[in-house]
Write a structure and sequence with these properties.
- This protein is of the alpha/beta class and about 425 residues long.
- The protein contains 16 helices and 17 strands.
- The strands form four sheets. An eight-stranded parallel β-sheet has the order 8-7-6-5-4-3-11-9. It has a five-stranded mixed β-sheet with strand order 13-14-15-16-17, sandwiched between helices.
- The radius of gyration is 24 Å and the shape is elongated.
């Protein structure tokens, strides 16, 4: 982890079960299920998979009586599996009715997500919002007030557009809409406080789909409040587009100290696991030096010297192996997430990168002697050759983890916790 971490904007500290959110805590990775919440077994299994992948909170859709009626069962199933991940209830349109009709749901959730644009209009909408906030306060639950570009309160937008047209120096409609997002979040937060919800129970978000818009909105929002902020593009997209867009937006904001929880809203490719959004979120934070989640693999991109696919396959297998093992290693070997492994493809940079890593292997390139020196803590340990190099190297990695991060291990005893700075 880098010692040059960005200075975080100063925020309230929000406690959500055992998870603390705010400038005094690490940036939290969360995700959301795409199962039918009424399917308690299927939803609990997906939450467990997301949790095992590293999601520290998981949001579930609570959109119907059938869904609300299963939330308490989902919580029980997770507890039975030893999964204590906090659950966030995602409410739109009918949240107040579901919380009223299903008190077990209200209690089982650790946090409510409320979209002011979808609660309702006028006095009726105010009453619905008030009921949800008072329910959260009664049960000591946190609330994320989440404003979305696509579901902005139209009465607020119209009021601000009319005022803008009447002003001496009107702004562009786009600027007014961005301001309306921020005003909606801040006014709703103040209403919640006036209704009795403490400031340290409120998180805000203002999600849009475009990278530059997101950066501008969050800069402005962050400068005008002390609430923790949840970051994410509202619809990032599929595959590389979604990953690149999310990284481009969040990296800028995180580097400026803005953001306390993140979610990468990827559209899953057919057949791909839901956990991909968790992995991307973790990798953004880890590559920026903000947190460590899983051992990192350094691998060269390949060139004309590496016509063999051996190093590519080994890098893939090592990376997959390390991430899968973290489900167990996280508890058994504290600090192992900082492990660095190098898998290099030829003699040009191979030995040097391998020496710099905790464990590194320099595979032979085209025309090179078919042997692969392995370096451990900068020293050449063994030279591998033959068809079992991958298995032998994995065994070396496993042995290193057990001896360096296990009980009494050198790495474990020297783990340094670097405090996250707050302005």
């Amino acid at each position: 982890m880098s010692t040059q971490a960005p200075i975080r904007r100063n925020t309230h500290q929000v406690q959500i079960d055992h998870i603390a959110v705010g400038s005094e805590s690490p940036v939290i990775v969360q995700s959301m299920t795409n199962t039918d919440t009424a399917d308690a077994a299927g939803t609990a299994q997906q939450i467990k998979a997301l949790s095992d992948a590293g999601s520290e909170m998981v949001r579930i859709t609570v959109n119907s009586p059938e869904a609300a009626g299963k939330v308490a069962e989902i919580r029980r199933r997770l507890d039975d599996m030893g999964c204590n991940t906090p659950l966030i209830g995602d409410f739109h349109f009918n949240g107040e009715r579901l919380l009223q009709e299903f008190p077990d749901c209200a209690k089982a959730l650790s946090k409510y997500r409320i979209n002011p644009g979808n609660v309702g209009k006028g006095v009726k909408g105010d009453e619905k919002f008030a009921y949800m906030i008072r329910t959260a306060a009664e049960h000591d639950k946190a609330v994320r007030i989440g404003v979305n570009w696509g579901s902005l309160d139209q009465s607020l937008a119209k009021r601000m557009m009319d005022a803008n047209l009447a002003s001496a120096n009107p702004k562009s409609p786009d600027e007014v809409m961005k301001e309306a997002l921020i005003v909606s979040a801040l006014e709703s937060a103040q209403k919640a406080v006036d209704l009795g919800l403490p400031e340290n129970k409120i998180i805000l978000s203002c999600k849009v789909s475009a990278v530059q818009d997101l950066i501008q909105v969050y800069r402005d929002l962050g400068a005008r409040c002390r609430y923790p902020l949840h970051l994410g593009l509202t619809e990032a997209g599929m595959g590389s587009k979604g990953i690149v867009a999310s990284t481009a937006a969040l990296a800028v904001l995180l580097q400026e100290g803005i953001g306390d929880t993140i979610r990468i809203s990827l559209t899953p490719e057919p057949g791909s696991p839901r956990t991909q959004e968790v992995v991307v979120g973790q990798e953004i934070l880890q590559t920026m030096g903000l947190r460590s989640f899983t051992p990192m693999v350094t691998a060269c991109p390949g060139c004309g010297r590496t016509t063999s696919t051996v190093f590519q396959e080994l890098a893939r297998d090592i990376q997959q192996y390390l991430r899968e093992q973290m489900v167990v290693w996280r508890a058994q070997y504290p600090g192992v997430e900082s492990l660095n492994v190098a898998v290099m493809g030829c003699v040009v940079n191979g030995p040097g990168e391998s020496k710099l890593a905790d464990i590194g292997i320099s595979l032979p390139g085209t025309g090179e002697t078919p042997v692969a020196p392995v370096y451990v803590d900068g020293q050449r340990k063994v030279t591998l050759k033959g068809d079992n190099m991958a298995a032998e190297f994995l065994a070396i990695v496993q042995e290193y983890v057990e001896t360096h991060y296990g009980e009494g291990g050198a790495k474990r005893s020297s783990i340094r916790i670097i405090p996250i700075k707050a302005s």
